[in-house]
Putative transposase for insertion element (Pseudomonas luteola), 278 residues
Amino acid sequence: MKLVSECLGVSRSQLTVRIKQSISPKVRRRRLVNDKELVAEIKRQVSELPSYGYRRVWGLLRRERETRSLAPINVKRVYRVMRDHNLLLGRRIKQQGVLRRHKGRIAVATSDTRWCSDGFEFRCNDGAKLSVTFAPDRCDREAIGWVASPTGYSGDDIRDLMLESVKKRFGDQLPSTPVQWLSDNGSAYIAEQTRQFARQIGLQPVSTPVRSPQSNGMAESFVKTIKRDYVAHMPKPDRETALRNLTIAFEHYNEQHPHSALKHRSPREFRRLAAASV
């Protein structure tokens, strides 16, 4: 055996294993799958939501198949089909970031424990400006409420947003445990009248450190999502049209938008599943 192994240039242990193998290993063959119907489904989703990558498209297809009681689809198959048909998004060029100042955790494990708030602006085609302020939950990611103004948001807007959010989540009751309200240090948020009103309706106002946008990173990420997936594609010839389409956009985000932190479920889908499991 030693002489044979030396002549073949292999180890004796490997040669022994080969001799003991009575049956040659099976050659794995790739199973051919007809992807024609899947390609049509993906193209339909991508045509309506051109900024969605393969994982969000997979989340939409999974929800649709669950509704129709069809067999689930693998995310790797969705990636392969989108790659083979040039439907993937281009690779994002990573921008050089700034020094990270925040080391805590913004997300929470239970809904109605911490809400956050921030705002953004955009211009309509006629040059009119629209300022939007919102309040998402830091567990289920639902945008609980939002307000829009042509002149920037004021303390009254923030207080209206606070009251709207409490009513939507608790009805006529107040929270039994104060809900944290996380925001930056904008004048409308840190005004004493706003902070006092927040405490009266069961909120606990919390401000981020100065010059630390990472401390409210989920709100910053929400702004990017709304601008990228909705504002950039919706018709906005004037304020009135933009407001109508913003209403549709926020409703779509809450009901349909797959979120990576929710295992690619939408915020309300996640809330329904959580309520059903209790």
